[in-house]
Backbone:
């Protein structure tokens, strides 16, 4: 059952307190049994019922314990389709693009450090040869 694929519109049909699905990191969770127990209140869960709750969930900085509870509520995974709302900052797509930017900057930084090092070494050698000549 946990392997079932849900489309975003399947998930959006489960948005009532008794039948409450949320999507977090492209996985689908049935939060119905947990709504009443949620330390953050039922209101916030109902707000994201049937929708992508990744941002709301991550913004709170939930504990590992909260993530374990989440594992127990797993019912399947989200199958994204064209036209579905795209997840924002915590989405794999968004994070992969920002990590490529990060990698680009990283390579640039290495190049600068390397060139700086070569120049410094050249200057050192030059000064040394000047001194030897004296
Ligand atoms: C099914 C998904 C969720 C689970 C299993 C869950 C679980 C928990 C747990 C176990 C806590 C206690 C603190 C901790 O262990 O981190 C907590 C606190 C909290 N949660 Fe959630 N949560 C879920 C979704 C959400 C969402 C979508 C929001 C939206 C904003 C939210 C807002 C909060 C807030 C504000 C607290 C802090 C309450 C306090 O410390 O007074 N949670 N949640």
Residues:
């Amino acid at each position: 059952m946990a392997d079932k694929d849900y489309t975003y519109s399947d998930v959006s049909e489960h948005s009532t307190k008794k039948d409450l699905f949320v999507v977090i990191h492209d996985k689908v969770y049935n939060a119905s049994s947990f709504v009443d127990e949620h330390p953050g209140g039922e209101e916030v869960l109902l707000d994201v019922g049937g929708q992508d709750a990744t941002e709301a969930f991550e913004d709170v900085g939930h504990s590992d314990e909260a993530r374990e509870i989440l594992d127990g509520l797993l019912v399947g995974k989200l199958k994204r389709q064209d036209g579905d709302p795209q997840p924002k900052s915590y989405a794999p797509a968004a994070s992969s693009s920002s990590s490529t930017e990060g990698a680009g900057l990283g390579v640039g930084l290495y190049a600068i450090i390397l060139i700086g090092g070569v120049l410094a070494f050249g200057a050192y050698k030059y000064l040394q040869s000047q001194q030897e000549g004296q």
About this structure: The two ends are 83 Å apart (CA to CA).
